[in-house]
Amino acid sequence: MNTTWIYKTKDIDGIYQSMIMKYVAKGYKIITAHMGGSQGEKSKIDFTDGKDIYRIWYYEDSENLDTKYYMHSSILCISVHKYEMDKKELYNYDYTLWRSKGEIIEEKVFYLINEYDRYGRTWADRKAYVTNKEVAKELINKAYDRYDPQEVYYKIALSKDSKKRIIEIIKAHHSRGYSTLKIKDIDYLERIYDTHYKNGRNQYRVIFSKDYKQHDMYLKSLH
Prior knowledge:
23% of the residues lie in helices and 33% in strands.
């Protein structure tokens, strides 16, 4: 009988720390020149043996599992990339190290199997991961079969004051792309009721007029 280990976020944090300590034990030095963060990264640390850079990456991403209900699922990944650098690049050249440029030395991928629990919560201590992709797909399919998710859509006509409030919410949470949004640009509101969650769960979609260039906007709440 095969055993499937379930990992919590704190377990994966510990694996990342252990990988860092392995390079510390080798006597490698930390180099901070290129360690600025970017989207999706939880943490990263760069070591050098005086010749090459070894980056230990800890980041969130998504991968196509092609489950019954979602094409992509969230993953956590810990990987070690090797970059060959001469001394000028290593210490003096302001150069950004991108994920695609390194040679992958080792890598661990953790597949999230409960994007939300049955109450719609996404707290980190409730998330669970496995390292086997096929097992992850099987568990995700079983979980969603159990709750038989269904979305119901309701069209909501909006008053002028309601449209003003929605514009305020959009601009407060999205600083780019909506600075010119006006009342005439909003057509109506759509409430999406998702029965996947206990007692249901609402989210909202703002439907813009045909002349407005932005795509429809999803909102988790109207507050």
